[in-house]
Amino acid sequence: MGKHKTHQKVCRRLARIAGHVKSIGKMIDDGRSCTEVLHQMEAVVASLKTARKVFLKDHLIHCVIKSAGKGNSRYAVNQINSSLKEIL
User: Does residue 13 surpass a pLDDT of 90?
Assistant: First the structure.
């Protein structure tokens, strides 16, 4: 359904997360402490959750509400159910 309003924001955030994941691999290769590595992994998980929230909100506005507004409420409800099932 086209690019969402937050497309660039989410893509930039995902690029930073990818860089962070790469640096975690380097931390492991360098023998950094498990606690440090786990802390950085948790930071990545938190960043992904934030990106997911931003993307989900935009999806609900951009795709679901548009579909409902066009009279396709069954599709809109299915989209909501599918999206929530993915994150719950």
Answer: yes
